[in-house]
Records
---
Amino acid sequence: MRPLFVIRRNRERGRGAPVAPPSPGVPAKVIRRMSQARERGIPDATVARLPLYLRALNGLAERGTATVSSEDLALAAGVNSAKLRKDLSHLGSYGTRGVGYDVQYLIYQISRELGLTQDWAVAIVGLGNLGRALANYGGFVSRGFRVAALFDADPAVVGERLVGMAVDHIDQLEEILGRRGVSIVVIATPASAAQEVADRVIAAGITSILNFAPVVLTVPDGVDVRKVDLSTELQILAFHEQRKADREAGSPIMTEDWAEAMDA
Amino acid sequence: MRPLFVIRRNRERGRGAPVAPPSPGVPAKVIRRMSQARERGIPDATVARLPLYLRALNGLAERGTATVSSEDLALAAGVNSAKLRKDLSHLGSYGTRGVGYDVQYLIYQISRELGLTQDWAVAIVGLGNLGRALANYGGFVSRGFRVAALFDADPAVVGERLVGMAVDHIDQLEEILGRRGVSIVVIATPASAAQEVADRVIAAGITSILNFAPVVLTVPDGVDVRKVDLSTELQILAFHEQRKADREAGSPIMTEDWAEAMDA
DNA sequence: CTCACTTTGTGCATCGCTTCACAAAGGGAC
DNA sequence: GTCCCTTTGTGAAGCGATGCACAAAGTGAG
């Protein structure tokens, strides 16, 4: 079963084989076909932007727009139009030259690519303030995702009903995950519990985790972890804010900063 | 006051002026000096990782570790050690060869670089489930950040007390932001209100926004917006999850997918 | 049909980040 | 002091992402 090439696939990013240079003798059609085929190699940066495009498209669709040019869609999504076109070209050739993209069709294609045409059962572990906020957050249930299980370790919380669902005790984690077909787990526990929860859900077969706890989770290969971290974001903002402040007050050449840095 | 060069600075990412090509005649020392000097040009990718290092360091400090090698720290932060060293080298030369980094000293240096030695007054706008979770979230108050104001548009929520602070009505936004010296605003409103809130806080002089609402905010140059978006993260996970599923079930060559894609 | 115009899809140059690999620098033993 | 060991700091190569600029491909008018 799935030898060599699976492993190769795993690391196969972007272009894969270095498409032959456009020597004038080679039939252009063959080259085209190859890059169209793309071998399932959509760049990570592109994948990260697809949800953005999807949201912009849904906005357009609600306002009844039937087709949209890359220029306009890029504007709505806040990106450069060349980037948008290149991103979409990784999915296939879904536009019409001289016209633009059919909004509904593009929504469908992006949704399909992102796997939103099926629905995903999501479990939330940890029902403190953040976990509750997530459970109640209607936005992400809207398309493709469904909260299928809630877990907490606190006996006072277990049994409580949230969004029409009882909170289960963490002891039943493995059993219920399996029974309800959960494939994505959201960790919203305190930092101290996060790694243990991760270990358990991974042992139960989960390979996609969204982590809100402020820790670096250690996971085996093949498990995807995405991290959302408030304090990190604030710290990045603070860095830039400080810089702006420095710039206004400090000397343009910034010699003082230097002196300070030097003697430290 | 601050003419031309301020604008230039604004767009000056990374290296700044296009360092002359490494023509063999140019004295290497000059180039060296320039990149060492860094002109306050810490790469964005590095800035984004500094909070991570800081957290790992705090963990080590709590356990009483005095010095740490780049190898160990990198392990704790979940990055490659060469990357860690290069990141830290952008801040200065704070390690000791043959020994490693002094944990306390490095904590101080990173904190200073991130601007965490001063404290930042943060306002939260929108106190639905998410806003409340953020207000209660102790983690980010810990170091450098302080919740200084809470706003909501709902009269039923205004006046309520959260984390020892009364919720103010959004009408008083500008006045209170100024009075309490707020410099970072967290938007946790519904999507429909987010742009208006952003416009108002920017008009009031705010230049750093952390946006939880699922919309692309349009802001003038000089304003930093960072976005945290649950549904985007879930969609990215779903994409990879789907891929993993395809890989197990589907044909390695993936001809079927093709047929399906073609007739659509 | 041809012509003018619009907009996509992409080759290519560029840029910035990552990673390797090693010289430089410090510590400790003797 | 010298020698050996450890670990940093960084030049340079590699790699992926970005954005320009344009040929290709479509529409619509006449």
Note: The first strand of chain A starts at residue 67 and ends at 68.
---
Amino acid sequence: MALLTNAPRGTQDILPSDSFKWRYVEATALDIAEKYGFKEIRTPVFEHTELFSRGVGETTDVVQKEMYTFNDKGGRSISLRPEGTAGVCRSVIEHGLLNDALPLKTSYVVSCFRYEKPQKGRFRELHQFGVEAFGASSPSADAEVISLAKSILDTLCNGSIRLEINSIGCPECRKNYQNALKEYFSSHSSELCETCNGRLERNPMRILDCKSPVCKEISKNAPKILDYICADCKEHFDGLKKRLDALGIDYTVNPTIVRGLDYYTRTVFEFISDDLGSQSTVCGGGRYDGLVESLGGPKTPALGFGMGLDRLVMLMQATGCLFPTPEGCDVYIGSSGENAAVEAMRLVTALRDEGFCAECDTVGRSIKAQMKYCDKLGAKYSAIIGDNELESGIVEVKDMRDGSKSQTTLSGFVKFIYNKLISDSFDDISDAFDNMESNFSK
RNA sequence: GUGGGUAUAGUUCAGUUGGCUAGAAUGCCAGAUUGUGGCUCUGGAGGUCGUCGGUUCAAGUCCGACUACCCACCCCA
């Protein structure tokens, strides 16, 4: 039935023809993060449900209706992680990493799971690259994290991605602001849309982001968060803006961006692209100074972001970004007859041991079919071994790119191919140099 | 959770107002004389037309339900 041959709803297979793109994106993100001092951390895909309901927030959609939660055989309530931050926080608290010299800077590539209705750019299993930094309260840390995200996106994408930032203040100033908002919107509650009436109690700040024209109009005159944040929060936000300016990072302050997870404080930001569908946020994050303490750790300022790899890869494909193509097959050794097949396999293995990609026939094809397959593989060189070659010890090596042929001996085959491939790669390097020089002289 | 759209070979799609053995392109396999790829030509395999039910002499085509996918709301990466 369909259950057997259909992947579960909202999941996607990354096929061999695409996996190299993901490897490239993940490796690039981790590499750049490493230059910024972030080291990879790996935490479990599932945690105690309690961690997420406390960490992400009891009232959030993510916790209320989107978690994959089940009881294990020991009767524990377990949830697949819906995001990356909570698990990392738990881990660094549990292992006492916050007792070391701070900041502690971590990065990760993870799958997250949310029971949502799938659409473009939204999946039930989503892949995320993320970073978390602990113990840094200065706006320099905010700027550093944003700069890292930008550097990754700039390196990978050529489409235009804009940065929007906001400050939602600390719990103190936010309380005042939310009261002011409640008061303001309550007086318009009859005009607000249904969802916004619901948000009035739960999260009035979300109303500011509503797309309904009526709510938008009402929001125009609503109190502004930046008028309500306290002096410290304001100073922090100004400090961030000053640093972004100094780094040459363009941004717009968008007072309506409010992240949907409860733990955020002060800085929140999003990187948004118009080249995706309606799920346009490629990267979102911010500061969460209260989270570590609320999970039972030492009072520790912290911040981070999550970057949606599904959306990022989608964006790169949509905007025609280039992915470095993986090295193809170096050598194909065809064979005819049992003894030759054995010899071909021996040679192929010897070449692989030298670090090359080599293939021989494993399905019993004719010579002609083997050559066609060799062509499909894009092999650089080919050779055919049969009884003649076994007897004479002489093999013909064909350069598949120009069809030219040369001869070598069976015993010297590996060395011969080795020299050919090494000299090819020298040619490649010198071509690259020539390109660089002509680029410089422009 | 709410809406709208779609569902035909591995893939991308044709299929005319219901009418003979359901098509194309591409991919796959095999041939075009003796042991050598790309181009060309020929042949072959591959579909219970998403599933179940209904209307009809007749359903890929019309109707209903279900399922899946896509898009938007919501939410978020």
Note: Chain A has two domains: 2-170+229-318, 331-426.
---
Amino acid sequence: MSIEHDRTPPTISEVAEAAGVGRATVARTLGGYGSVSPRTRDRILAVARELGYRPNSLARSMTTGETRTLGVVLADVGNPFFVGVLRGLGEAARSAGYDVLVLSTDEDRNREAAAIDVLVGKQVDGIVLSPAAGRSDVVPHLDIVAKRAIPLVLLDRLVDTVEADAVVINNREASRQAVAALIARGHRRVGFVWGPVTNEPAADATDLRRIIDHALWSDGERLLGYLDALEEAGIPFDTSLVTHVLKHEPQATRAVLGMLALSDPPTAIFATETDALTGTLRAIRQRGLRCPDDISLIGFDDSSWASVMEPPISVVAQPVHQLGTLAAECLLARIAGSDSPASTHVLEANLIERQSVAEPSTLTR
Amino acid sequence: MSIEHDRTPPTISEVAEAAGVGRATVARTLGGYGSVSPRTRDRILAVARELGYRPNSLARSMTTGETRTLGVVLADVGNPFFVGVLRGLGEAARSAGYDVLVLSTDEDRNREAAAIDVLVGKQVDGIVLSPAAGRSDVVPHLDIVAKRAIPLVLLDRLVDTVEADAVVINNREASRQAVAALIARGHRRVGFVWGPVTNEPAADATDLRRIIDHALWSDGERLLGYLDALEEAGIPFDTSLVTHVLKHEPQATRAVLGMLALSDPPTAIFATETDALTGTLRAIRQRGLRCPDDISLIGFDDSSWASVMEPPISVVAQPVHQLGTLAAECLLARIAGSDSPASTHVLEANLIERQSVAEPSTLTR
DNA sequence: GTGAAAGCGCTAACAG
DNA sequence: CTGTTAGCGCTTTCAC
């Protein structure tokens, strides 16, 4: 059996001819539908194997109208959070017989629009999207998916103007808990590392609410949770304790360094994403500060390294895997025809307390 | 302009009719080939936009035979190494106008075979594969891609029996350097954390070579580099210093704990993957050992957290991004028709020395 | 510069 | 149980 380069793969017709039967019979056999007599079935199967026949899913999709493929549009495929979600999503999809086509946008709305176009063009059966839009922004490039009634599930971020199923976590409450834990230990100046990206810091709390309206829902919620905790404790909001930098690690380091240089620096920091956490840690190390003796710290998104750090770092852990599987299940249900009204599923993130939090040192106080 | 659920999207025919021209003209306009008079062109474009026309890439692919999609089959989409590679790969593909379909195998050969089948069925224009096969294993499920002459690039791992372009790292030399660096500091007992998975440890060096033959190429090379370094220094090989456990973090921790309990424990450890490193760190912490005072450590794959650890950890850094872009470029070149003989590209990984290595303590010596 | 017609590989009605 | 036929939406000759 020599391997020859047969540039024209065998089709159903060829199998049919070689087996001496009609095309439909072969299609039924290979497609596993309809009924075929065992005898011819076996012969067809044998011939198909012999010829190295593989179904052409493109052709199949053309006629059936379904591709058994889920499109996923994520902000950043490098972010451990999304990586975790993707694993859950992929597993759930695969076990339902679906493949997953992943596109990354780097939070760029044009790329998001392009990604949606690609997915629509490829006729995916449904789309999971973690939108790069603020909570009250309008997202015109989703019109096409609404118009074509392509099942859509929003992931991790809500958008007021989009009516679709959504799977998110209780960012606000989780954030509030984390900050409250800090306050409970006696901290009154808590830095918040990834506030919404803006050109200049919020003028005041009211201005902040306006900013939050155009920030990613998840970012806004985390900030709101922070404000909640402050308010509960009667601590006035200080704009200089919230960063508004681009979400890259070096930016976080610089911003934290800035906070630390304040005349009245934070005694604790809440870093709301993985890169914010490593960036913050770097700043702390650069200043020669020790955690938790000199400064307390809580991160977001659990990871193996966070628990093996010295000290082990307290984090708000998101159920990433479950987030992914749930998103897939939601979408699959829609694809299967469910027409219940759009609903938002809220999963719980929980604070995992380790050893990065202590009382504020009397020195820095 | 109300959004109606138009379950049958506009086709070229409909645009043609609405614009009062023939289908071919519309196809030429929308497809951007052939030539069309500016006037009709504009009218068609206007009508197409009005109708919300989107090309159906499935139909297009059916006739052209190309999908402008690259298939990628990876062992583990959760591994930071592959995540990094994927980013590079995705960027390169995207900028060439290709999409990427990623499938994960978890090192399971059956799933790998299934993944290949999916990709072949979906008519991807080329495949990047990081095979779950040992260096001298045979991979029957690749016959079909050879037979159909589907461009293939091996990623990170070589397989003797597969003739295809490949993009890998100089694992052996990088590993040798790392171990040599440890030895240069005076270590003579160096633990090696992720040796090939086997049921029982190698009986001797010869037995080990046999094992390496059926191990993943990259794993084998790293182990060979370790042996090289030992040999250079005239240090006898001790099988109890190489793990053969499954590649999951807890396994690494347990294995290292075992080594540490030896009557003559290692004074340094070389952890050849991210999870091996965190697992090793955990074992070190559990034993209450301090790095580098009590035990030295070198990891594999750089990461932000490794450099922010206390102490910052020395690692062998792989050019992950470049690995990805190069793989994409290779594949794209083949797709474009290059027929130069298959070649293997070897990229360099380099040791980044930080502060996790010191002289062995006189105590544990 | 433009249109008519064939066909990519498959499924789905419908006959037989 | 099996074969014939008609498309799916697009590109691509090939005439006009």
Note: Chain B has a mean pLDDT of 93.
